[in-house]
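Mods, move this if it's the wrong board.
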Amino acid sequence: MLLHNKTDKRILKEKIKNDSEKRKTLSFYKYHRIINPPFFRDYLFIHWNAIGVLGRIYIADEGINAQISVPEKKWEDFFTDLNDILFLQNLRLNLAIEESAPSFYKLAIKVRPKIVADGIEDPTFDSSNTGVHLSAEEFNILTRQSDTLVVDMRNHYESEVGHFMNAIRPDVDTFRDSLDIVVDMLSHKKENPVVMYCTGGIRCEKASAYLKHRGFTDVYQLDGGIIEYARQVKARGLENRFIGKNFVFDDRLGERISEEVISTCHQCGNTCDTHRNCKNEGCHLLFIQCEECDEKFSGCCSEYCSKNLEMPEANRRQYRSGVLNGRNIFHKGRSIVLHYKK
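Not the wrong board. Structure tokens:
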């Protein structure tokens, strides 16, 4: 039995784009000891592929981290499958705020060393000793206090398009980079209340425990992250303290939480918060691009990449193989061609 996708991604994207089937996009995570991650990976693929689940799931011996979309007509089947797994019973699912565009086009389930790469090697670190979980209302109350430190545990390209009021936003590329940087930034205020947030909560599970491990005494985390916060704000009519867009790790690349647009096009400097990946497959750089620049550069980050698209496929393949023309996918939002990157 084939337990992974082999169809060309362009075919899959076109299929999903033309599919009228309604879907629900969601994310969830669970830290739990998994004895045999490869076996669990195959089990999930067999069950979820059969009902049309799409998305990206990471499995490790420490747990599961999933961002997926499920056909609405198969929701009950998915929910039953989920609750057949004991440690995933009664799990909170973070449902997407917007379904304006397809989120995923294939099912990819991968076994990784960790479900969130953190770089922590200290054997005395206890990841279960997390901070206090806050609801949206509790978060609003605590973050209004003048001595509270609000810390964004996401990367620079995420916080650039949206963040909470008065948040400390480390200029980092990865979660691994952020942990010790945050500790150093706040080392002189270890007695202050520290409230951490991220997209769906998974990074803060590790980050809040790490701050406590490093001597911080009053640590909190936003339960369910920005996604759950936005849901509670809307459902309960609470004050929305989040400004702008919430970056999401699927093909939508963002969900609007407030009407403010707080970032600019990286190519011309006009107000914009639309992330795109450069259409030159040899680059694939993540950056912010307005509609005018999208048209001018054919969806690319530079004239070089847009000219690359005009070449025959054989020539483009030759350029992609060059040492100096490697993919920039891991250099999200950072390139010398982006003149208006803040």
